[in-house]
# Entry
Amino acid sequence: MLFLSTCCVCSSSFLWNPIRTPAEAISHTASDINELGNQNRSTLANLLKEPNKVGMSLLVFSMTLGGLSLATFGLGLQADHRRAAVGATITCIIMLLVLILSGIGLWSPPRTSITVRLWHAGLSVLIVITLGFILAAWRQVQKDPPPVDVDILPPDAKIPYNMYHDDPPEVRLANEIAARRRKLEAEQAELDKMEQQLNEDKESSS
# Structure
């Protein structure tokens, strides 16, 4: 959603102010500059004249912050935090409401490009589908809530050295040396037993 709203929607909206050439900028007087500034000022009257720009601003703003929020709450759900499901549900509902408001601006005359309206429709469908998954996750958390101390390790818990080994290198080397020593001692004991048996056989034959 973050990629679609910032990369595709903005670049295909064709909503930008006209750029003045250097000759036009030089020929403009102070009154012309003030008039242009008043025309481009973000007042309520100017916003009502161009609802498509308001819809575009709401779309980009809500999808950017909402996408980051959903990513954060998604990590919280993976970590089995109880409040993450509630936060994700509220965030998704707010995003859906803002999409409805932005849709009023984007689909009202004067309408923006068909590409932006299609992106808006696709994002709306995506948010509705996401809301369904989030509600299912929220119901699962309510039915089987994770323990409160899920992120607290017990006092006797052993923290692994890394994702591949539980112990540091020096401990692993010491364990390997001890294992080899025990193996050698067992082999030595077996050799001593075989030698003793051989000597007994020699004595009995003589």
User: Anything to note?
Assistant: Helices lie at 2-11, 22-27, 30-39, 44-49, 51-78, 82-107, 114-143, 169-205. Residues 156-206 form one domain. The two ends are 93 Å apart (CA to CA). The chain has a mean pLDDT of 77.
